[in-house]
Write a structure and sequence with these properties.
Layout lengths: L1 E5 L5 H10 L3 E5 L3 H10 L3 E2 L3 H5 L4 E4 L4 H9 L13 E4 L5 H13 L3 E4 L2 E2 L1 H6 L3 E6 L2 H11 L3 E8 L3 H29 L4 H8 L7 H11 L9 H18 L4 H15 L10 H5 L4
Parallel strand pairs: 1-2, 1-4, 2-3, 4-5, 5-6, 8-9
Antiparallel strand pairs: 7-8
Helix pairs in contact: 8-10, 8-11, 8-12, 11-12
């Protein structure tokens, strides 16, 4: 298919690459043009000077940018995707953003007979690079079924959650759960160290039981060694948790632990860890060790 991809960050760059390797005709746009040029040298495709130019001949336009304001700029702004994409085409937003902006874009798209899916991702940079992302989708089922085989190029699991906005709400659930799990793992490791236990043996003993989690399997070793210069950045997690906390004010959900962990991440930022992996929550517990 003819597809556009706007946003070649740590996630979008390899995702667009998988679309190209699958044989789709890909036109990319990135705010920093040099990165788009580098992508074109690595993969088969062309670059455009604006999101609108990239989407002009596309059947599906994908977007993966930073936040609500970026989504509005790329999709709804001057020279944006919606100003150029044709009727009966589809916009898919992979940005982790608010459900509110998803619904806003969907309304604007419908006025031009363009379909819209909000489709935030889980799996991080490694998942994007390995084509093993989990995608949570909001939107109409016929549109989802139309786009699902294309998204499958870079996914291991794709689930339609509900109507537009439901994908973003599901991603909020994902981040709420991760925040609590990482804090629990941080405290457990901290406790094991203070108890002079053999940490690898403890992890071996508990990682196959009820305490098992992706975070435990993939992060305990680096956490024990205070290695955080990789992965999903604290500042990104705080952005995501902020979106969830804002939504909770609207829907009445009680997110006591999420509020606490968000402030713990603020402590990590004060330690200079804005770009550290989210597993760096343990650093605030051990800063005086």
């Amino acid at each position: 298919m003819r597809v556009a991809f706007a946003g070649l960050g740590v996630m979008g760059y390899p995702m667009a690459g998988y679309l190209s390797k699958a044989g789709h005709e890909v036109t990319v746009y990135n705010r920093t043009a040099a990165k788009a040029e580098r992508w074109c040298q690595e993969f088969s495709g062309v670059s455009a000077e604006s999101p609108g130019a990239a989407a002009a001949s596309a059947e599906i336009a994908f977007c993966c940018v930073g936040n609500d304001d970026d989504v509005r700029a790329v999709l709804l702004g001057d020279n944006g995707v919606l100003g150029s994409i044709g009727a009966n085409c589809v916009i898919v937003d992979h940005t982790t953003a608010s459900a509110e902006v998803a619904r806003e874009v969907a309304v604007a798209a419908a006025e031009k007979e363009v379909a819209f899916l909000d489709a935030p991702l889980s799996g991080g940079q490694v998942g994007a690079e390995n084509g093993q992302l989990t995608i949570m989708v909001g939107g109409d089922e016929p549109i989802f079924k139309r786009v699902e085989p294309i998204m499958d190029c870079y996914a291991k699991a794709i689930t339609q959650i509900g109507p537009v906005g439901a994908g973003q709400l599901a991603k909020m659930v994902n981040q709420i759960c991760i925040a609590g799990l990482v804090q629990g793992l941080s405290e457990g490791l901290h406790f094991a160290k203070r108890s002079n236990l053999d940490v690898p043996k403890v992890m071996q003993a508990i990682s196959k039981g009820a305490a098992q989690s992706w975070q435990m399997e993939n992060r305990w070793e680096t956490m024990a060694e205070n290695e955080f210069e990789f992965g999903f950045a604290v500042e990104w997690m705080r952005k995501d948790l902020g979106i969830a906390l804002d939504e909770a004010k609207r829907n009445g959900a009680t997110l006591d632990m999420t509020k606490v962990v968000d402030q713990y991440y603020a402590d990590v930022q004060k330690m200079g860890g804005s770009r550290w992996d989210t597993s760096s929550l343990i650093a605030r517990l051990e800063k005086s060790d």
